[in-house]
Design goal:
about 250 residues; mainly alpha; 10 helices; about 70% helix; globular
């Protein structure tokens, strides 16, 4: 019994160390590229050519920041250490778009308890098959006056205090933020939970989670949404962090 407990403690320690290392890598990469792109990247010559890859990289890292915060909501970044999870989650969501972690935390657990029903804040009851109406409903659910005020304050601070280029801000901050929200919604909400055809009752999903997974290989799964597309596996085992989902799916 003591040996099993020690083994479990060691496994949690390894998961925490790996989760923190990956979170630090994602956040550090995003911060470094964001600062460079917004304040120092020149849009002339080769700089114009490099703009598209930089936007794509920032979009993907934005998705990563959200997935890190999502793992923190489930306590899977640092098992048994709620303080660490909440601190890292708040930082990750603040970097992503000035979002309020505690608000997301409550709503996300409602999503897991009531997936695909009228009580699910992530589900568009009246548009269960349509991408854009559902996305707009999803956007309004999480982006409110507080988020607008925070982003507006940051925008003017960048512009007036830090002398950032307006074009660079729109291209390397605004565009990746919007694109990443679409990417997260498409691969992490709409594809896993959408209804197919005229009417798809809850029973057609197979179980109470009302979620499906994509059939992407590990590399494409990582690129599209940090394995969040393995969504049925996530709903069945929310204690697993994003980087453990491929092995769990194979097992």
């Amino acid at each position: 019994m003591a040996s099993a407990a020690m083994s479990s403690t060691a496994a949690k320690g390894r998961q925490t160390a790996t989760g923190l290392a990956l979170a630090g890598l994602i956040a550090g990469s995003w911060l470094g590229l964001h600062v460079y792109a917004v304040f120092f990247h020149r849009l002339d010559g080769i700089g114009i050519v490099m703009a598209a890859p930089i936007v794509a990289a920032l979009c993907w890292l934005n998705v990563g920041l959200f997935i890190v915060a999502h793992d923190c909501m489930h306590g899977s970044l640092a098992p048994g250490r709620p303080g660490i999870n909440h601190i890292v989650g708040r930082i990750a969501l603040a970097l992503y778009a000035g979002f309020w972690y505690d608000r997301f935390l409550a709503k996300h657990h409602l999503h897991h308890r009531h997936a695909g029903t009228a009580d699910d804040p992530d589900f568009a009851e009246h548009s269960p098959t349509r991408f854009w109406p559902w996305y707009l409903s999803f956007f309004r659910e999480y982006f409110g006056w507080r988020e607008l005020a925070v982003l507006t304050a940051i925008f003017w601070a960048y512009l007036l205090v830090l002398d950032a280029s307006p074009i660079n801000m729109l291209l390397f901050w605004g565009a990746p933020s919007i694109a990443s929200s679409l990417q997260l919604f498409a691969f992490g909400t709409w594809l896993p939970h959408r209804h197919i055809g005229e009417d798809l009752g809850a029973d057609a999903f197979g179980d109470r989670h009302r979620a499906r997974s994509n059939e992407y290989g590990p590399l494409l799964s990582l690129i599209t949404c940090f394995h969040f597309g393995y969504h049925h596996e996530h709903h069945r085992a929310p204690h697993l962090p994003w980087w453990m989902l491929p092995a769990h799916r194979r097992g």
